[in-house]
Write a structure and sequence with these properties.
The complex is a heterodimer of chains A (313) and B (469). Chain A is mainly alpha-helical. Helix content of chain A is 74%, strand content 1%. Classes of the chains: A mainly alpha (313), B alpha/beta (469).
């Protein structure tokens, strides 16, 4: 019978023999992958995590962006959530923008479902449709600023042939400015959603469609009972990302309307910039940024909760 | 099999590098020979040591928006002429995109150019309070800058008793008009606000747009019109008292001034309507003005350099422009004073004396005159300029600058908002006026909000020093 000490000694001696192999295995499977990831993780730490943590600190201070920051606790958040009308207005515009994104998804789903079964010419059509996406926002904004010119643009040309009502300066009217900017932004990026949905549709097994046709379904029923369930994970993911991106809307607003006229297209992104760099209230801007992250976090939490509840998303 | 393939790949790589080494061998030999020659020369140099004074290096950042004309002006005129007199100084001038934000980021990191150019006194004030700018008091005494600059112009750059920055690019706003159109129609340029309103009505009845104004490409353009009407229809003394906290932005004369502006806007006298005001570009605006589709333009002296592109044969018309002071309630000629940019010295500069020397050269009347008339068409700093310094300048522009100088001496000046208001007040003034124009708030509510924000800034010590009137 082995005594305890002999067992430990035997294990040690034996482990000395198996240790090198064990060590190599641990090194290969556990440590080396992290070493490969380390450079990008360090970069991420310095460029993203570090500033994010400092942003949390600065949101609790009265800071102009220069010099020392004075700690004021939750003063910025109190002002922001309870007293700042421009914040409420900007948040409502972001929410309206999210609602407008229904148009993006309807367009993307429709075109993707039309393109999915296409064998000839599908790639060419996709390529042409993708052109707006590769243009920069400055170029796209410039193009549409001219196209929407009430004297020389599309509306003016239509008016010449008797179609009236579109020769207006939509970007300069408070009631239409936000939707007009959304329209231009949507022109730019709807095809991105479409391409992802198209890829998801093309991964649906063809047998399901064949089986459905055998059962005598029409095109709409095919879309509803085969296509939609088949692309559900991609669709929900894109809805989640769209929700998050909506709160980050900035570039087209800034280029085309600066948040105007009369604040009618102000969004949280432009509010952050104005507070940080024009009003020189960087601490307050950090509080707005953190609030935007909170909204995104809520969306992600809803997504995770639904997934845990068993919803296939 | 996999191991064999791996060895083949390794051997191929080794062979490839070897061949590269062979190919560069003659170059390597040549490099060795050159290196030997350099070593011999260095040895000769070492035998005869020469004491070389270290050159002071000044780094200056301009903005890419200034364009190639400015870059050429710096590289071929300003810098070489200075270096001829100062052989122990080296200057590096580059243009950065969005230079103010680039400079701010660099300063926060302890770096940045030696000369810090910022776009306004409020930003310069924040830099000074944050400890990023070098105090200039000693240099003021050494170079006599208090005698070089217009007395009023240095006040806004004093922080806690020390001067930290110097103003550049003096600006004012006037009423430009299409002279050819006015002559054709027999219109007389207005001197009072009442005359202006009557004239606008006459112009509109002719189917011509009274004002070519827009803010599509520069939203803060609102501050031009708000500032002009506050000062000229409300009164410069009232504005002054509001600025120093002894008066109120809700003064009835200032309410009147904003109501006049609102009336003009509601009648569509700005570019034919608010929607057009918000969507017309500068190019379209000036084309409208040059072609005679619009009769007048309230804008700053910075716009004069664009007018040759829109008036005259080159622009495809036979029109000409002229100017009058922006009308006032009494008819007196008033000029609102503005500063376009501000210069300071980086607190971490290694060569503050050399930098100050360059600044003194840059702000001399001779250089300012050269910059204005030929080199870059750049607006001068608020320094004393003589008529000889204005040689080559459009006589209309020269007349504006001389009139501005005289107006200041006679106390007939007003306050541009971007020069004399703190950042929060100025942003409020620019943005909220659109809500007045949209009918969302009244003029009284607008000015009450202005008073509230201005008072907060003043109490927090974020207001700017105002020259004593």
């Amino acid at each position: 019978m082995w005594k305890k000490g002999e067992i430990i000694l035997a294990f040690y001696i034996n482990s000395k023999k198996i240790r090198p192999e064990f060590k190599r295995m641990v090194l290969r499977k556990k440590i080396i992958p992290w070493l490969f990831l380390l450079p990008i993780l360090l970069l991420h730490l310095f460029v993203t995590i570090g500033p994010s943590i400092s942003s949390i600190y600065y949101s609790l201070t009265d800071w102009s962006g220069l010099g020392t920051a004075k700690f004021i606790g939750i003063g910025n958040f109190q002002q922001l959530w309870f007293n700042d009308k421009s914040f409420i207005s900007a948040f409502s515009h972001n929410s309206i923008w999210l609602f407008y994104c229904i148009i993006t998804f309807v367009m993307a789903l429709l075109v993707a479902s039309l393109l999915a079964p296409l064998k000839k010419g599908g790639i060419a059509i996709r390529t042409v449709l993708f052109i707006p996406f590769v243009l920069s926002s400055v170029v796209t904004a410039s193009i549409w600023r001219n196209l929407l010119n009430p004297d020389r643009g599309i509306g003016a040309q239509l008016a010449k042939i008797g179609i009236y009502g579109l020769d207006k300066a939509f970007l300069g009217i408070t009631k239409t400015s936000l939707f007009t900017v959304f329209f231009i932004d949507n022109w730019h990026w709807w095809v991105f959603i479409m391409v992802l949905l198209l890829t998801a549709m093309q991964n649906i097994p063809k047998e399901l469609y064949e089986a459905a046709r055998v059962d005598g379904v029409n095109r709409w029923q095919e879309f509803r009972y085969v296509t939609l369930p088949g692309i559900r994970p991609t669709l929900f993911f894109l809805i989640l990302m769209t929700g998050i991106w909506t709160f980050q809307t900035f570039d087209y607003i800034w280029i085309l309307t600066y948040g105007g006229p009369a604040g009618s297209s102000e969004v949280l992104g432009t509010l952050v910039l104005k507070n940080a760099f024009i009003r020189l209230e960087a601490g307050y801007a950090a509080a707005i940024g953190l609030t935007m992250s909170l909204f995104s976090g809520i969306l992600v939490s809803i997504f995770v909760y639904l997934k845990k509840k068993g919803l296939e998303i | 099999m996999k191991k064999l393939l791996l060895w083949i790949v390794v051997l191929m790589l080794v062979a490839t590098f070897s061949l590269v080494g062979c190919k560069t061998a003659p170059e390597a030999v040549e490099a060795e020979e050159v290196a030997e020659e350099v070593e011999e020369e260095a040895a000769v140099v070492e035998e005869t040591p020469v004491v070389e004074e270290e050159k002071a290096k000044i780094v200056i950042w301009g903005d890419t928006v200034d364009g190639d004309t400015a870059l050429t002006g710096w590289e071929e005129d300003i810098i070489p002429q200075f270096l001829e007199q100062n052989k122990n100084i080296e200057i590096e001038y580059t243009q950065q995109p969005n230079v103010h934000e680039t400079t701010r980021t660099a300063l926060l990191g302890g770096a940045g150019p030696d000369i810090v150019i910022s776009y306004g006194p409020s930003f310069a004030s924040e830099l000074a309070k944050g400890g990023y700018l070098y105090p200039l008091d000693d240099f003021v005494k050494e170079y006599g800058w208090d005698n070089v600059f217009a007395p009023w112009s240095l006040t806004s750059y004093i922080v806690e008793g020390s001067l930290y920055a110097l103003p550049d690019e003096i600006e004012t706003l006037v009423l430009y008009y299409n002279k050819t159109l006015f002559d054709e129609k027999g219109w007389k340029p207005p001197t009072t606000i009442d005359e202006l309103l009557v004239l606008c009505k006459d112009i509109a009845e002719e189917g011509i747009i009274p004002f070519a104004h827009c803010n599509a490409e520069w939203r803060p353009a609102n501050e031009w019109f708000v500032g002009e009407f506050l000062n000229h229809a409300g009164g410069t003394q009232v504005v002054y008292e509001a600025l120093i906290g002894q008066g109120s932005w809700t003064d009835p004369s200032l309410v009147y001034s904003m109501e006049i502006l609102n009336e003009i806007v509601q009648k569509g006298w700005f570019t034919g309507g608010l929607d057009r005001y918000y969507t017309t570009t500068f190019d379209e605006q000036l084309a409208m003005f040059g072609d005679g589709k619009a009769a007048m333009n309230i804008e700053g002296t910075w716009s004069i350099c664009d007018y040759p592109n829109y008036f005259g044969e080159e622009a495809g018309n036979s029109n000409d422009w002229d100017w009058v002071p922006m009308p006032s309630v009494t008819g007196e000629a008033i000029f609102d004073v503005g500063i376009g940019s501000v210069w300071g010295i980086n607190k971490n500069t290694e060569y503050p004396e050399a930098t100050a020397k360059f600044i003194d050269y840059f702000y001399s009347s001779e250089v300012q005159g050269r910059l204005l008339s030929g080199v870059m068409g750049k607006a001068p700093a608020p320094v004393e300029l003589e008529e000889k310094d204005l040689k080559g300048v459009d006589p209309r522009y020269a007349e504006i600058l001389l009139s501005l100088s005289k107006a200041f001496e006679a106390n007939n000046y007003g306050y541009t908002t971007w020069t004399f208001l703190g950042p929060k007040s100025n942003l409020y003034l620019v943005e909220e006026i659109e809500k007045v124009w949209a009918g969302d708030i009244t003029v009284e509510q607008y000015l009450e909000g202005m008073q509230e924000i201005f008072s907060e800034e003043l109490e927090a010590g974020e207001g700017l020093p105002i020259p004593v009137r």
